[in-house]
Design goal:
Length: 149
């Protein structure tokens, strides 16, 4: 009886092995195709990892360049603001010069009376002397205006 049980188990084992082999052999084309797709996906994954590392390195370079450009932009903003202040002052001075030009282009009858407070003539000579003195910084006007241009 024991031999009968061993023989039965052996036959069942052979049947199961044959059925497993047949089932595996039947699906062999699908398994081969799946392995091929798996290998392609592994290669694509390796390429994408390499590409992501390269893009991360490029992003770091771009971030550094952008930070440098922001710094330059701040410097240029300061230069532009300084130039706009000078331009505003030049516009004011141009308006004053234009006003002075209009005053000088049309002589006033009372000009001698107005100028007599500022200028007095020496009776013994024909030399005109100014009654008002210019400030000290006026003598050093080259040093005073050197920072502007």
């Amino acid at each position: 009886m024991i031999y009968f049980l061993y023989i039965l188990l052996f036959i069942i084992w052979i049947c199961l092995g044959y059925w497993y082999f047949y089932y595996t052999y039947e699906k062999r084309g699908i398994i081969h195709e799946l392995r091929k797709h798996n290998n392609e996906l592994v290669e694509a994954n390796i390429f994408l990892e390499w590409e992501s590392k390269e893009l991360a390195a490029q992003n770091d370079i771009f971030r550094r360049d952008i930070q440098e450009l922001y710094t330059r932009n701040d410097d240029l903003t300061q230069v532009v603001s300084e130039l706009s202040r000078y331009y505003y002052r030049l516009q004011k001075w141009a308006a004053l010069v234009q006003e002075l030009h209009t005053f000088l282009s049309h002589p006033d009858e009372n000009m001698k009376q107005i100028l007599s407070t500022y200028i007095k003539t020496n009776e013994t000579t024909t030399q005109v002397q100014s009654s008002k003195q210019f400030p000290v910084w006026w003598d050093n006007q080259k040093e005073w205006n050197s920072g502007f241009f």
